[in-house]
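Final paragraph of the annual report: two paired records, presented back to back.
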Amino acid sequence: LNLVSDHTRPNSALGLPSGGEVVGDLAMARYIARTWSSSQSNMGQLILGADDASSQSAIDQFVDYALIMSKKDEASRIKGIAMTLNRILVNQTFVASATSITLADIALYAGLGFPSQHAAKVALNKALSGGNNNGILRWLNVLTSHPAIRQATQLAVGITGNDEAVFDEDEYTKLEPLVAGMNALEGATPGQVVTRFPPEPSGYLHVGHAKACLLNDYYARRYRGRLILRFDDTNPSKEKEEYQASIIEDLAKLGVKPDVVTFTSDYFPTIRGYAERLIEAGNAFMDDTPQEQMQQERMDRVESVHRNQTVKETMDKFKLMCSGKAEGAKWCLRAKIDMSSVNGTMRDPVLFRQNAATAHHRSGTMYKAYPTYDLACPIVDSLEGVTHALRTTEYNDRDEQYRWIQKTLDLRPTRIHSFARMNFMYTVLSKRKLTWFVENGYVTGWDDARFPTVRGVVRRGIDIGSLRNFMCSQGASRRVVNMEWNKFWAENKQEIDKRAKRFMAIDKENHVKLTVTNGPDVETRSFASADCHPKDPSIGKRIVRLAKEVLLEAVDADGIVEGEEIVLMRWGVVKITKVDGGLEGTYLPDGDFKAAKRKLSWIASVAENTPCVLTEFDNLIIKEKLEEDDKFEDNINPDTLATSDAIGDAGLKALKENDIIQLERRGYYRVDRPYVNETKPLILYMIPDGKAKAMSGLKGKLAHR
């Protein structure tokens, strides 16, 4: 059912397939139960009283009674229903059945105001206090805790906005407020939510996948449910153990810990059984139409010549295909749905294909034919108890197909929650295109910092908490947009700035020497103490080496005049006494920091300084957005990597891999390789900060992004 809030309607109404409608809660409930009774499930029959005339009549009388009582004031209604139920419920749990809930229970529960939420339950219990109401109180507890009642309540509450039902006071306090940008899960009840992240092990995870897995993880944790990591390994031609292992590693990098790891391949025999059920019910057929012709026929809404083959013919051809024999290779199993549908995915999609030539990376050559994702996903989602399937909006058309498969196979339905996929400017996310970059040597591997893979952006310097916050902030949107990387990195900068220790480094080639005439000689080994982080002294202290000769960036020294006072950051004020023939100046112990216009980074010219290699990156693609007819190979950026040698603080030698620091007035960096020795210097990767320009005049070799 699709629930819609329409405040222009005075009463609730249910639209019918015929175009009419049923008006009123109880009339709608009867209709749904009767429709349910006509399906393979007997639950609708139980709610209506099965085929037993006496039980049906008993249910009808209580439904009529509930309608009569609904016209009375609240106090009279509660008192009357309580008196009736206390007498009936002495020796039974439900109103009109000894063992199961019926429409009579639902009608009377609605007559009491449907008190499923905590506040309503407390108010009703208060109204029922002071008398012998054990029967109705016990009955209320049973119905209020019933999963179907809770799910219905959550659905109703969520129709008009982003509110969530509150069933228990303690339960409510345990649920964290929704992160800004996130919507409540429709019909979700705490402790019962099961989500899944189903990657195909055919490549490395990229930032688009990161959004999907982080949203699934967020909802599973918020609702105290479970997250399933399921490898959708239905295509042995593309899948490798290498990719499977990398996905597990990347999820760990993202801080995602699934509650269980499963494989679609473990369900192959079960999925085949369901495929045979489709065949036996006349809902599938075997087809040997060539692929291009099949695509054209589906576009033109032309039925296959094999669509009306007999069940026996279909089953024989299906078994031939699954045997792996060559004559079965041309056949595939197609669902028999609706070739006239405006939804192209409903025009008899392919469900099973032969692939006998390639061994599966887990099952080897045990199977010769494999289900498509379209068949396997709805089946396994239902079997594994997934309550909410998070799917990108590009699957919207396929959602109808997904529901058809579950309904036709009489599987427990799964609720679909849509979200927009995430694209980035100047970026390709296609596995095929990313593989091309690797194979053609444009990058060093799948963990190259220029790559949009999870391991690529982590190596570039993304903070996992920032990544999670950024993805969740985009979570509710169903509009596909091309995101600017600057927004991504600006979010990251806010987080890493809180803990990035400050150091200084000077370009090895483009620097000038300043002689502080009253500065300490090298031999005296003088130091100043400075906070590692000027905004957070708790991070600790670092020592800054002082010396008579210091190195400045050449660009900073340009324009300095005699008599000018400059600030050497973390040391003090120096008054320039000589410019021509080499800079000289005098350290002023009581100099005015605020009066000086230039506040410069610098390094003492001493032997123990740390040799560094500063690495910058640029986008692999030069076009903001590639159109469908664009060849990405024609839009390759030829200059995406640049390095600069620098001379840094001696303290940089203590850094470890993955440490994140700020080189003052240069920017943020991640340690890609710690300092080893003079021939194996410290390698730092520059982390974008979301700004169009560098934080000072110290420009790098590439665009600042």
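The closing record of the year follows.
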Amino acid sequence: LRRARTQIKKAARGCRNCPAHATAAYEPLRNSQPQQKRMPQIHAHETRGAAAWTAATKSTSSEDHIKRSMAATSSRCEVLLAIRENNGDDDEAYVELLVHALKCRQLSVQREGRYLLVTCKGDVLAREADACKLVKTRRSDKRVEVFVDRDGARLRYELDAEGCLFSRAEEALLLERACAKATVEQAAEGLGARWKKKSRELPPQIAQLAEDSLLEALKQTGVIEDSVILGVNTQMSWWAWVCAPSSAIHKAFGSDVALYFAWMNFFQLWLLIPSLVGGYVYHLRIEEGVSIDDDQWAPVYALAVCLWAALFCKFWSRREAQVAVDHGDVLLASDGGVRPGYRGAPRPSPVTGKLERYSPPIYRHLAYLLSIVVTGLMLRVALLWHVISLNLQGYITQDYVGEQDFYREDVAKYALEGEIFDPKSTEFYGLKALVPTLIHVVVVRILNLIYSYIAELLTKLENHETQSMHGNALLVKRFIFEAVDAYAGLVFLGFVRRDVVRLRQELIAIYCVDTARRVFQEALLPLCMTALTSLKNKETTKKSKKNDDFRSMTLNRTKSNIDTRAEKELAKPIYEPFDDYLEMVIEFGYVCLFASVFPLGALLSFVANFVEVRSDLFKILYVYRRPSPKRARTIGAWAPILRGLVYVAIASNAFLFAFGSEQMVRWFPQYFDRVSLRKAGFSKDYAKKVAREGGEKSAAEAQAGKGRVVVLVAVALEHLVVLACVLVELVIPSMGEGTRVEVQRLLYERDRA
């Protein structure tokens, strides 16, 4: 202990200005009994002090030492709450109530202007960890178990690299949980009466929400405008930048973000298989000197990709369970608890007998009907724009008889030869022909933003009881709309036009443009905006000094550290993993849905994902706000969406094999004949144009009476692949044997605790 005290004194030399150290007393040992020994106060913001505390803990086994040390240790993370400006007396009363409620939960609250800074001691973190059944790693055998805050229990768990019991993400999670659990009943009696008086002026659902979470109620009313987590920026090693390990990301940002990176790493690893096979198929096609329309090995590759996709989804479910065990979230309830914004009348629970909020299902069913109608109207608008865009880009012409219903002469005239949007124009190095594509991208982005706002409103009207149900409903709405935006043009080329050569060209353009867009929009653009804001603030400060404005200089000098940190963090955008998941799922669809047309899609996805993972890690660390840690054991509704895409891909590739190209002709030539373009459904002018240009003057068409055989072959192949995918789902277990045993052990220890 004397040696540890010496180390602590040396560690404290660099922090003499700390107010906490100014009042901390290094008391000598007053009693010779071991249980009365006292440890000096250690603060978590000192790395060397934390290391000394770790050494002292190892040299003694007294639980009293670690309790006193944790009681004196503050959380490394802080919650910043921004109060709305120009607030009146009512807002001040609500803020005063919130401060009292937070202090009643043993939280430390510091106010500076319109900002509240909330932190807590280590004992509060341990209390919240015990309440939420957090899982920690044992020091003895490196196995995980449910955390219990009892005598001698804290000494059983491992410490992190900085000598603290909880990681940064766990501290932020527990601190946010403690803030969210502050209720009206925990405030002072007089303030509680004032709140009840003012609650009559509020909507009933907000007053009801305050009984569960006062902070959420104030956010709903607008008294609390925003909240953000403050803390020391996480530094990643070069190994983390190369491999992006989910374990390191979990310790820094929590399970939700770490699960996304675990899925990305798993997806990129599995892309190696179709990348190599697709590259070999492309090599065979180049050697044979045929186009993708006549490639006989492309459909074989497509069937293999469908089986690969089914295996990928199944093995990801196994990997997902193991990641949940490693992160300590495998015992997490799947529903996520009652949603704070859930509206309902109080009634006794038929299970527990306690009062709970209840909303009749009929209201949710009516809201579902409204969501279907509004989403259908928005999809109609999106499809109408796609038709206009395809006419403007010159995709829809009068050359194809079956496309007359989509042809719009008043728009398509601008894409004719010699017009302003001629696709073959070489003016300005061919950039003029890209203007319709840029217009299409901008309009689609605007439609997605509009519908995202509408989808949020519709999901709130549905009034889901749990947070997981709310998130999944919102996810399905947005995925359906944005998937239509992503695949509508490709479906037209593949299933209406049945031009796989043009479809392949569009897929190549999408991969190249979309990868560049994601890197620029998600990482470079926000970084530039943040840098410009910082530069503008510096120029303002220099200008005030140059003009010798005494008042502004005085204000700049007296500006508190809280204000500076708050303005810096609140200026950053909020990170949501939804958009990242959506982009990767759409890309998964590109690889699977059009595998028979674009075998190199998996290889391009592998390269694009390598860049995507690093850009996502970069923007989380340096561009966006620190993500709010959330516990998650699965990727949610994305898993069934991926499985659904697998079965849609089977039907898509079967159609392209039999009817969208001449690939089936290479395998079953006895069922087809060569006919003229005019008989195959092309216009007379188009047939003459092809003849002038020396193109193919005929097309393959099923022989008379053999059409049903062609359909039968396509349906039989589709059903065989579907059967194989179903067998994969049934035969392979969703959880490995070791993972299953670990889950059962955790369940046993949780029940025993």
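Residues 14-62, 548-558 have pLDDT under 50 and may be disordered. This concludes the annual technical report; the extension proposal builds directly on these records.
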